[in-house]
Write a structure and sequence with these properties.
The structure is a single chain. This protein has about 650 residues and is an alpha+beta fold. Helix content is about 20%, strand content about 30%. A hairpin with a 2-residue loop joins β10 and β11 (about 275).
Length: about 650
């Protein structure tokens, strides 16, 4: 027998607490007697009681101790262990990446009659895997169906012949995902699933669109590759779509359409601006070439742009990559309160942050009722923490949310003058994106202790200078020096530093370089299937998220939102409300276009290196790989202890109220 969670034995303290409470309560009984003779009789009666009478008197204590011990052992998950033999284990690794939607599947190779409709590579892979189950396996073989895309997941497992219908049904239910194939992770997962088998084998059904140069893991199983599809390459795709606002607020859109085929292709690029059609563009693509387009004259309030390429000769291999969506960055309105501003430079930097509505006040006029998203305090902090995110500059010695223990600055040590407030460490941080601190000097700063909720951003030798963190339920950033005691004013990086701080506090992405000088992936783009993290504004009472399928979700606005229904590519609209008033709207886009990997899905030509996957197990990959042939299984019986504890609770309740 073993305990799967032995740390739960620490709950024995519960039984000790019950016993301690029992011993602390008054135990003497009040007995009225008229003489010492009667008192001695009462003592003799007490000492003459039997064990049964004692147990009856203390039954509640005994029941409570037994219940506590039963619950403790149930939490520890006692289990009986045994070894069971494991024969042949087969991992059917099914490629369900976006490239498997290419319509060059071969019905004849899959044993199917040609039909009028499209036959994709995934259709062929499903048919071949089903035939493999029926023809190549023996009774007693264990089969695991592994779905491969940007992550590897087990969708079914069973032992033949009884598990055959379940395995076939799982294969038929497989659907392609709008993602790139991560083959190294799939090989690692498959090796772990079959490591205890006497004989292990991995069969990969793939269209071959995968880069094997980064495959370094060698699973301890035989690896076989079953290529699917005819290997055609006549595919056109939108490989880049980016939007920005120029220096005067006009929207500019960059689009690139690529032809991966060997013949020239003409077509039409159609745009939709906030679901309204725009003027189409004629595109001519040379063989293995592309055409970039820079488009302008869009409405100033544009928020979502969708581009769709239609080849003149009819549909190409893959329809998924002919459509791309981009959101035009427009941050929500953030209300910022500046308390005790000492300089005009800080005020101007805050007003220059896009989407910021700034209010300035003095400490004597500060109102703690709220109504702001970010509070900026300079040299002062209120007695009660503000109801929102806050930025503290030059924390005061008294009444500060961080511990101030002294000052840093110029010192004379052994006749030599030093400055222990100078920058000594700079750590990667969203506050410093696009900020160059080279040449920045700090003449004097507060010596503060780094709080438990914070992490360093910039530090001197002995104390942090800038740090950020999460003093729940809000975010906070601290500059431990007076801005006037540094040379930050007048530097190009100072407005960007302040903008980064406000954006991070309110959950927005990093600030682009002034003017948005270059096209690139916006901070609103993410990979389909990844969680979408939303940090609502402190004023928000409700958050609504609308998916590309027009499905709507509602969330409370007083807590971060982690949205996971993001498998569909396209725009996800996030709207924040304060009561019934809309205070923020942002569009995030789930896109298969990833930086540096624009053609990872669109280039459907099978890679010649995919065949090398069959030898990743070493020179003897096709020879039987002999494993231990056994695995440890656990028969847990904590449920019985849980039932007994529940029965004990009912008995204790009945006896106490009897």
């Amino acid at each position: 027998m073993t305990l799967l969670t032995p740390w739960a034995l620490a709950w024995v303290a519960g039984a000790a607490a019950i016993l301690g409470l029992y011993l602390l309560k008054p135990r003497s009984r009040r007995v009225e007697v008229s003489s010492t003779w009667l008192w001695q009789g009462a003592l003799r009666e007490e000492s003459a009681r039997s064990l049964i009478q004692w147990l009856k008197r203390h039954l509640l204590l005994i029941l409570q101790l037994v219940i506590a011990l039963l619950a403790m052992f149930a939490l520890a998950r006692p289990a009986l262990t045994r070894e069971q033999p494991v024969g042949r284990t087969l991992v059917l690794a099914m490629d369900v990446s976006a490239a498997m939607l290419a319509n060059d599947g071969d019905p004849a190779a899959a044993g199917r009659a040609p039909g009028p409709g499209r036959f994709t590579r995934l259709d062929e892979a499903r048919a071949r895997a089903t035939d493999f189950l029926r023809q190549e396996l023996r009774p007693g073989d264990r089969v695991i169906v592994l779905r491969m895309a940007d992550r590897a997941e087990v969708v079914a497992q069973g032992t033949l012949p009884g598990g055959l219908p379940q395995l076939q049904a799982a294969i038929e239910r497989l659907q392609a995902l709008p993602a790139e194939l991560d083959m190294p992770q799939a090989l690692e997962v498959a090796g772990g699933l079959a490591r205890t088998a006497r004989l292990g084998q991995m069969v990969i059904f793939t269209g071959g669109v995968v880069d094997t140069q980064n495959v370094t893991h060698q699973p301890p199983v035989n690896v076989s590759v079953v290529p699917v599809g005819r290997g055609e390459a006549n595919n056109q795709a939108i490989t880049a779509l980016a939007a920005r606002r120029n220096g005067i607020g006009e929207v500019e859109v960059f689009v690139r359409v690529h032809n991966f085929g060997d013949q020239p292709v003409a077509g039409t690029l159609r745009l939709q601006v906030d679901r309204q059609p725009a003027e189409p563009q004629t595109v001519s693509l040379p063989p293995q070439g592309s055409q970039p387009l820079l488009l302008t004259e869009f409405p100033l309030n544009t928020s979502v742009i969708e581009a769709r390429f239609e080849p003149a000769g009819g549909p190409d291999l893959l329809a998924l990559d002919n459509v791309a969506t981009e959101a035009v960055g427009l941050p929500p309105l953030r209300k910022v309160l500046l308390v005790g501003g000492r300089t005009d430079q800080l005020e101007r930097a805050l007003r220059a942050v896009p989407g910021v509505e700034l209010t300035k006040t003095d400490p004597q006029q500060y109102d703690a009722k709220g109504g702001y998203d970010v509070y900026v305090f300079e040299g002062w902090y209120p007695r009660v923490p503000p109801p929102g995110h806050w930025l503290l500059i030059d924390p005061p010695t008294q009444g500060s949310p961080v511990s101030v223990t002294g000052t840093l600055g110029r010192r004379t040590d052994s006749g030599r003058e030093t400055n222990d407030a100078q920058i000594a460490r700079v750590l990667p941080s969203p506050l410093l994106q696009g900020v160059d601190l080279t040449g920045v000097g700090v003449q004097e700063a507060k010596r503060v202790r780094l709080p438990d909720w914070a992490e360093e951003v910039v530090a001197a030798r002995e104390a942090p200078l800038i740090f950020m963190g999460y003093p729940r339920p809000y975010r906070a950033a601290v500059f431990a020096f007076d801005l006037r005691a540094s040379n930050l004013f007048g530097r190009v990086g100072f407005p960007i530093l302040i903008a980064n701080a406000v954006n991070w506090l309110t959950g927005e992405g990093a600030t682009p370089v002034a003017g948005g000088a270059a096209f690139g992936p916006a901070d609103t783009r993410f990979t389909p299937g990844d969680a979408l993290a939303i940090q609502p504004l402190p004023r928000a009472t409700r958050v609504q998220i609308e998916t590309p399928s027009k499905k709507r979700y509602q969330f409370d606005g007083n807590q971060p939102v982690r949205f996971v229904d993001t498998t569909l590519p396209g725009p996800y609209s996030v709207i924040q409300y304060a009561g019934n008033l809309e205070i923020g709207r942002r569009v995030y886009v789930a896109s298969v276009l990833q930086p540096g990997r624009e053609d990872a899905v669109a280039n459907l030509t099978p890679r010649e290196t995919v065949a090398s996957l069959a030898t990743v197990g070493g020179p003897q990959a096709q020879a039987p790989v002999v494993g231990p042939g056994r695995e440890t299984v656990f028969a847990e019986w904590w449920r019985l202890l849980g039932v007994l504890a529940l029965v004990g609770l009912l008995a204790e309740w009945w006896w106490a109220h009897r």
